[in-house]
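Let us work through a complete example step by step.
Step 1: write down the sequence.
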Amino acid sequence: MSAVRTLLQSLIDYAGLFPPAGLDMETAVRNYAAYRRGDDRWALGKFIVPASRLAEFERTAAPLVDPADPWPLSVLGGSDLNQDLAMILEHRYHPTRGLAIESLEAKAASTVEIDHATRIPRDLATYIEIPIAAPPDNLLAAIRLVGGRAKIRTGGVKPELFPSPADVARFLFACAAARVSFKATAGLHHPLRCVRPLTYEKNSATGTMHGFLNLFLAAALVQGGLSAAEAAQVLEETDPKEFEFDGQGAGWRGRRVTVDALAMTRSTFALSFGSCSFDEPMAEIRELGLR
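Step 2: predict the structure and record it as C-alpha cells.
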C-alpha cells in the first residue's frame, strides 16, 4: 500500500450535520450512504451524530443500512453525560439495526471533569476534547488514567478558533510522550495549510487553516523522534513540493517515515479527524496528484 493511502485509510469521520455544512439529517445520511459505495470509501471513517439525535438518525438511516454491513458511529456527547450514556446504551446493542456505536466524544477542561469518564464503559472508545492553549500534560495524564483518548479542535468558523502551529505541535509531542492516541476535529478540510474561506457562505471570512496531511505526517514524524519545534515547522508548511509520498514511505524536507511506521501511527496514535465535508478533502487530494 502506498504511503498516502496508508495515511488516509479510514481517516475522515463524516460530520455533515455540523458547521460549516450544517446539513439536515436526511441529506447527511444519504451522503454517507453514497460515500460508502463510492471509489473513495477506503478513506471514509465513522458517521458523527449527537447523542440527542440518535433516534432521529436511526429512523432516517434504517432504509439505507444493511444489517450485515453496519455503519460505524461516533456519538458526540453534550452536557449531561449520564443522559448521553443512557441514549447510547439504548441504541448500541441492536446489531439487527445495522448500526455500530464505536466511540463517544466528550469535552473536559479539567482533570476533575476527565475523571467523570470513568462512568463510561471501557469497551466504548472515548475521545475527550481538551483545551491546548496551555501545556496539556496534566490533562493527557488524566485521560490515560481513565483509558481514554484525546481530541484536539483544530479550527472553526472564526479565525480565532484556529490554534497556532506551536500549540498543535506541543499537543502532538505531549500525546506521544503520554502514550495517548487522539483524533482531530474542525478546520481540516484541506490537505495542506492554506488561506481559505472559513464557511460556505458567499461573503465568508477567510483565515489560515491547518492541513490534514501536515497534521498526520507531523504526528508520524513526532513518533519517529521529531521535536515539537520541528513539528510546528511541518504544520506551517504550505508548499506541496516539500512533501514526498511514495511506495516506501513519506517525508518532509528530508525527514522520512516508512509505510510501516505510518500504518502504526494511524492505528495506535493519530486515529482520525472529523470533517463536515468528505468530497472536498478527497477532491483536493486528487488535485495534488496523491490519490
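Step 3: interpret the result. The longest strand covers residues 99-107.
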